Amino acid sequence: MRTGHADTFPRLLADIGGTNARFALQTPERIAPIVTLACADFATLQDAITQALQRAGGPAVRHAAIAIANPVQGDTVRMTNHHWAFSIAALRDAMGWDTLLVLNDFTALALALPELPPEHLRQIGGGAPVAETAIALLGPGTGLGVSGLIPGPGGTWLPLSGEGGHVSFAPFDGREIDLWRYAQARFGHVSAERLLSGPGLQLIHAWLGESGDHPAAGPPQGGVHPLGGQQGQSPSVGAVHHPAAGPPQGGVHPLGGQQGQSPSVGAVHHPAAGPPQSGVRPLGGQQGQSPSVGADHHPAAALSPADITARALQGGDLRCVQTVDLFCALLGTAAANLALTLGATGGVFIGGGIVPKMGAAFARSGFRARFESKGRFSGYLAHIPVFVIHHPDPAFLGAAKALDHQLISSTLL
């Protein structure tokens, strides 16, 4: 399954977000998840790692890879959406490891894309991906992760490591300009992440409440599901540009190759760790940044992102319905902007913790129509497929791939 000598296993893999820290052990045969821990329950990342290893029975780990929701540009890592900060070298030494690779979580997720079986992908519109062309990746969760894959020599893929979630939010119409003004009055710079994230759902929900720009709450009328289609039905999204959501057809992986196969992943993608640069991410307390969107920015009685989504999917709370539908439309704008920027005719992939949980409602939402609403380039975007990732542990696959390459390159094997 994985390259490497048996004496380099087990390896620890971690996927660290702003809310949860997930851990797994990799052996030559498989990747076995250990535990998911709430970041808020631990003072430091080292404490969380220690707890995870204890729950796994204290295995003798020598090599580890951590995918983290943060820029990784040096030895010092300070999380944007959580208070953890650490030195990579110091953490490696404290844990007694030979190798500790730390990479951005969406860089890891990009590396995983060629590994994902077709049954873990659901296509939302578009045609077939164009082989050996750029691929876009984004995903809202606690923040908004953005990455992509660029085709390299010999069938390899080179992942992008950036902070595209913090580009400026681009309103589509007058209503969204009003939303931008609402956010700008509170935070100054309005990044895409301000709205396309869990806290962003809360911000949209609060804006709808204060602006009165929503119908009175109540059950959907006329048997029409609030996110599209008849009540109790999940209609297809159209015959020309919007096929019904579902796995890629014919068992063919959208990145090329038959089911169960994946192209090799390139190696030129893990710069040596270095100190994070000020002003790189607009959330948090660094120079040129604004505070993160958190519970302190909303009334105490504000619904959680999970509650907003759940109520929208149930259809009984029309303010939540409007919140989620506007969220999906905003994501369509952001995804289309990324696709045009990268020339991502190889497809757009959506991960993160929010969209996969929407299920078929996401296909019925305004996402695809907004994705294709780009004037002269609407036809260009109409052919680009969008895939929602439904794999339970995709970042572990990418972290394992990166660690394999790191160990081979450093001649430790």
Can you describe what's shown?
Helix content is 30%, strand content 16%. The protein has twelve helices and 13 strands. The protein folds into two domains: 6-107 and 397-409, Nucleotidyltransferase, domain 5 (2-Layer Sandwich), CATH 3.30.420.40; 117-390, Hexokinase, domain 1 (3-Layer(aba) Sandwich). The protein has 413 residues and is α/β, with parallel strands linked by helices. The longest helix has 25 residues, at 318-342. It has helices spanning 45-55, 88-95, 105-112, 174-187, 192-195, 198-211, 305-314, 318-342, 360-364, 367-371, 378-382, 394-409, and strands at 11-16, 20-26, 31-38, 63-68, 76-78, 85-87, 99-104, 121-123, 135-140, 144-151, 157-159, 348-350, 386-389. The protein has a six-stranded mixed sheet with strand order 8-13-12-9-10-11, sandwiched between helices. It has a five-stranded mixed sheet with strand order 3-2-1-4-7, with helices on both faces.
